[in-house]
Amino acid sequence: MFDLRELLTSPAIMMLENDAFWPYQDVFIAAAAEMDNAGSIVPYTLGNTGIHVERLSNGSFVGRINRAQYGGCSAIPMQCQTGTKTACPQIGCGLSLDGSAPITQHDVDYQRRRFHLVGQRGDQSLTLLLKNQNGILSTVLSNPANANSMPLIVGGAWDETTPPQQCFWRPVSANWKLALHVIANMYRTLGIPGTQGVGGATFAEHYVFPNLVFVECANLLASVIVQPTATSRSLCRVVLRAKDRDASRIDSDRIVSALDQALQEAAEKQRKIADGDLTAALASSDVKRQTISLIAKRVYTALQSPLQRCPKTMATAYPLNPRSGLASG
Questions:
Q1: 247 phi and psi, to 5 degrees?
Q2: How many CB atoms lie within 10 A of CB 1?
Q3: Which of 93, 170, 197, 233 could form a disulfide with 71 if both were Cys (CB 3.0 to 4.6 A apart)?
């Protein structure tokens, strides 16, 4: 049986996820709406591998592994060996943060940032199996058989011809599993009644394993891709898009406000869990705990296979905790 607190707070668990979980999952990494023009690039660190997606001149997308996985370093610095993604000018490094926004040709330092990711010639980089489902891009690094072929059908049709109302990234001081849990239940967590919100607007959430949540409000649909950046930190990549042309600015502000409240709630829960008060943060009898239990079980199950394939390597790097059967922090 897994230890939920350990899954949310242990640096060793995050390092194990980077090695044995993320490379084997079909991970959502970007939304097409983030890349409006040819040459736009969205970087993403998947586990400890730096990758990126670029929109080409013909409107299609290509995913590549970054040119320099460790930037210009001849050896990995100590501050980059903690499991926390570091702020570094070398955004192509698999151990650094991806920046604060997608890269566009309007950026002053576009050429420098693009070179870190693509190099001189993108056609010489290793390409990824990239899928575009309803405008959401995903990839799998190590096992294409894990690619999710299920369509992302959420809240009716998504009008691809309607420009996105907002695209933004939000950091949150919470483990990625906890952040997903709170976002996937945010209207109930924040006390918004049922599926009917202020003014009669319909609210709904839909979680897609491993790292995507759709949030619906009236005529707007928000996609939230959650990316781990440290044991207790995550990055939420948010795109708000109209399902039809009747969506209003009020609906957009309503979703953003609710999301910001949810991220504050996730940070507070993470603090309580880190202090050892798991019950206060996630009551076992609360229906809202079901989502995080589902995520934790699937992560725990996925981590068992690599442990069985190479027990000596994993046992040396991540000593097992007999109480939970997982690596201890």
A1: -65, 140
A2: 9
A3: 93
Q: Is the dihedral of CA 159, 162, 165, 168 positive or negative?
A: positive
Give the relative orientation of helices 11-20 and 289-309 as an angle to the nearest 10 degrees: 60
CA-to-CA dists, residue 314 to 104, 301, 317, angstroms = 40, 15, 5
pLDDT tens column, 64-112: 998 878 777 777 888 888 778 888 888 888 888 887 778 888 888 888 8
Instruction: Compute φ and ψ for 105, nearest 5 degrees.
Output: -70, -10
Tens-place pLDDT, residues 226-266: 999 999 999 999 998 876 655 566 667 778 888 999 999 99
* 137 closest CA partner among 34, 20, 256, 22: 34
Instruction: Please give the Cα distance from 254 to 131 (Å, whole number).
Output: 30
The letter for the amino acid at 103 is I
pTM: 0.84
Pinpoint the alpha helices (H) of the chain.
Answer: 4-9, 11-20, 110-118, 176-184, 186-189, 249-274, 278-281, 289-309, 311-317
Query: Under 8 Å CB-to-CB from 313, ≥6 apart: which residues?
Result: none
Query: Which DSSP symbol is given to 86?
Result: B
- Amino acid of residue 51: I
The rounded distance, in Å, linking the Cα atoms of 62 and 60 is 7
Cα–Cα dist 280/266, whole Å: 13
Model pLDDT, residue 129: 87
